[in-house]
Amino acid sequence: MANKIGRVLWCVCWWLLFRPSPRIMFRWRVLVLRCFGATVTARSRIDPTVRIWAPWNLVVGRDSSIGHHVDVYNVATITIGDHATVSQYSYLCAASHDLADPTMRLVTSPIRIGDAAWVCAKAFVGPGVTVHQGAVVGACGVVTKDVPEWMIVAGNPAREIRKREIQS
């Protein structure tokens, strides 16, 4: 029951305080999220159009950003590391249904996006997935398994493309 009340209150605050805030008011949105139990650093950049199911299940690191129209379905905890980016229209989905159960009960599993990782535009990251440090999920990629460190994956289902190399 407490979860449902929290969700209703969050919905009202999302519509009244979060969503209408001007794009440049990142710190305001961080404050609103923190009021609902999110662990978000002051230097996080979260767009006003981001849909967050349960702020109390959200952890966002330093200098990380969540782009416009990202859907964060965090029935279980979703953690986004430092210097990570989740680009526009992506979907982070921490829940699914047990297809063997006749009632198709909800099954949840946390998602982790590592430090310096990038989830590109319109990508889908499924329940229980870890996108490890420095990894990249290509645009429109569908990730249902962990992505190794500094690996670029793309496609549906996502496949390894090559190692990511940083040039100085």
Automatic annotation (TrEMBL):
<comment type="similarity">
    <text>Belongs to the transferase hexapeptide repeat family.</text>
</comment>
<dbReference type="InterPro" id="IPR011004">
    <property type="entry name" value="Trimer_LpxA-like_sf"/>
</dbReference>
<protein>
    <submittedName>
        <fullName>Maltose O-acetyltransferase</fullName>
        <ecNumber>2.3.1.79</ecNumber>
    </submittedName>
</protein>
<keyword id="KW-0808">Transferase</keyword>
<dbReference type="GO" id="GO:0005829">
    <property type="term" value="C:cytosol"/>
</dbReference>
<keyword id="KW-0012">Acyltransferase</keyword>
<dbReference type="InterPro" id="IPR051159">
    <property type="entry name" value="Hexapeptide_acetyltransf"/>
</dbReference>
<dbReference type="GO" id="GO:0008925">
    <property type="term" value="F:maltose O-acetyltransferase activity"/>
</dbReference>
